Every structure is written in structure tokens, then in C-alpha cells.
């Protein structure tokens, strides 16, 4: 696994935990956080032993957002007084790699579960909306912060959040930049489940990941592929696409193993083939 100064990767069986590991700064996303994400998730995507990924934060928060001070050095265009065309062109080219930081989870074939405690602000919310499933603690708070500091959220949250909570809630969060608590997050489907504290959250995330990992990997990954496609295509196109995917993965050794194990009344052993 490639070394990262921001992310810490730990493997527990078929589950990989990707930790935001900058607890002293409440895991604010610095240059390393933005640049290292694609490589981390690409390697996990290519690791045949990894079937599910859990993303979580060390310390007392998931992520307090972008480290603005830490990022100024790599994006001096933000501080220029003369915001003319040539400068904007340079800035545009720097935004694309930042978008890839978030898209890395979406592009990863393995399901990604976000286990959120404490702050999940700005870039932190961007990050978790690119994950497949979100779980949180009772003390978790969420904020689409960018408008409050003069930015438009440009790395994916405005594209992904409406599919999760709908247009109305997304616009409310984007326009007001207000903070919502875990109860509101659950009510609007931003999170799937709320846990009492971090220990319960991490145990719950591991249990969910283990449950997913117990299923045939090829079927889980194909389901993610089809669901991702469905957010960008019409229902008709999505149906054509899933038919194509289904015909490509059936039959598989895991499908045969599932039937055989059921007939033999034993637990199936899936290999991903």
C-alpha cells in the first residue's frame, strides 16, 4: 500500500479501514488529503482480498473540512487580486484533480461505508456523499459550508447530494450553510443509521461491512456499478445497462457456489470469480 501522510489504511479480513489521520487538526483536509485519495482507493480497488471499505476519522471528529491555510500554497490563484482570464484558466485545471479526490470512492468498485462522528463539514461532507452508505454517531453534525466562506461547492457534493436527500434539502443546506444534527440527517436520509457513540459506530460499521463482504463480490460490485450508472442515465438506459451487466457476470463461480451451498445446507465460500 502506498504511504500517505494523511490516510492510514488498516485491513480486518475482507474489510479495509481508511482513517483520516490528522486528529490534531480535526482531520482538516490538507494537500496530502486531496492528492493521496485516488491512489489509496485505486490500490484498494485492485486488492482482491478487500471487498468493502470503511472510511472514518481518528480523534474526536470525522473531518472539519478543507485546510484553507494549508491549501493556499498550492492554489495561490485564490489570493490574487487580479482575477483575469489567464488566472481563471490555471485555477480551472487545478479543480479537476480536487474533484478526483472525491470521485475516487465512487469509482472504486468496492462499496465504501462512511462512519462519521463529530464534525462532518464542507470537504468532509463532499467526501461522504461520494461514499455508498453513511452511518453516524448521535453527536455528528453536518454542514455544506462553502457558501458561508464565499465558495461554491465544486468537487461533487452539489451533484451527489440531491440523489441522497433530494433537491429541496440540498438547496436548503447549500444556500443557508447551516449545520444539521444527526436526527435531521437521519430524517432526510443523509445517513442510514445513528449510533450512540464512536465505539458503537465503528462496531456497527464493521458489522455492516462484514455482512456485505459475505456476499458474492462480483454481484456486490456489479450492483454498485449499475447504481452509479443509474444516477447519470434515464431509467430506460439504466435498464438496458443492467441487462448488459447481468448477462456479462452470469454465470459465475460464486453464483454456482451459492446454489451448491444452499443445496448442501452450508455457508458458501465466495472467491470473487
TrEMBL record:
KW Isomerase (keyword) present: yes
Taxonomy, superkingdom: Bacteria
Record has Glycoprotein as a keyword: no
CDD domains: crotonase-like (cd06558)
Gene Ontology BP terms: fatty acid beta-oxidation
A Pfam family reported for this protein in Swiss-Prot or TrEMBL: ECH_1
Family annotation (Gene3D superfamilies): 2-enoyl-CoA Hydratase, Chain A, domain 1 (3.90.226.10), Lyase 2-enoyl-coa Hydratase, Chain A, domain 2 (1.10.12.10)
Keywords, alphabetical: Fatty acid metabolism, Isomerase, Lipid metabolism
Molecular function GO labels: isomerase activity
Pathway named in the protein's UniProt entry: Lipid metabolism; fatty acid beta-oxidation
Classification via NCBIfam families: PRK06142.1
UniProt family annotation: Belongs to the enoyl-CoA hydratase/isomerase family.
Name of the protein this chain belongs to: Enoyl-CoA hydratase
Amino acid at each position: 500500500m502506498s504511504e500517505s501522510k494523511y490516510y492510514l489504511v488498516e485491513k480486518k479480513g475482507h474489510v479495509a479501514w481508511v482513517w483520516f489521520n490528522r486528529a490534531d487538526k480535526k482531520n482538516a483536509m490538507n494537500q496530502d488529503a486531496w492528492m493521496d485519495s485516488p491512489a489509496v482507493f485505486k490500490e484498494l480497488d485492485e486488492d482482491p482480498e478487500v471487498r468493502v471499505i470503511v472510511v472514518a476519522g481518528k480523534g474526536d471528529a470525522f473531518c472539519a473540512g478543507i485546510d484553507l491555510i494549508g491549501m493556499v500554497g498550492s492554489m495561490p490563484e485564490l489570493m490574487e487580486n487580479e482575477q483575469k482570464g489567464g488566472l481563471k484558466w490555471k485555477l480551472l485545471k487545478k479543480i479537476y484533480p480536487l474533484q478526483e479526490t472525491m470521485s475516487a470512492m465512487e469509482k472504486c468498485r468496492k462499496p465504501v461505508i462512511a462512519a462519521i462522528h463529530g464534525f462532518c463539514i464542507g470537504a468532509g461532507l463532499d467526501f461522504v456523499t461520494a461514499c455508498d452508505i453513511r452511518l453516524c454517531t448521535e453527536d455528528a453534525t453536518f454542514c455544506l459550508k462553502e457558501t458561508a466562506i464565499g465558495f461554491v461547492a465544486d468537487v461533487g457534493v452539489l451533484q451527489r447530494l440531491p440523489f441522497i436527500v433530494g433537491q429541496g434539502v440540498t438547496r436548503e443546506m447549500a444556500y443557508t450553510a447551516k449545520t444539521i444534527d444527526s436526527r435531521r440527517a437521519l430524517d432526510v436520509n443523509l445517513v442510514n443509521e445513528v449510533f450512540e457513540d464512536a465505539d458503537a459506530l465503528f462496531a456497527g460499521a464493521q458489522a455492516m461491512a462484514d455482512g456485505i463482504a459475505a456476499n458474492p463480490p462480483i454481484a456486490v460490485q456489479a450492483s454498485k456499478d449499475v447504481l452509479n450508472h443509474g444516477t447519470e442515465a434515464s431509467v430506460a438506459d439504466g435498464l438496458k445497462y443492467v441487462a448488459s451487466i447481468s448477462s456479462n457476470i452470469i454465470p459465475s463461480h460464486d453464483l454456482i457456489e451459492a446454489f451448491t451451498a444452499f443445496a448442501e445446507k452450508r455457508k458458501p465460500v465466495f472467491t470473487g470469480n
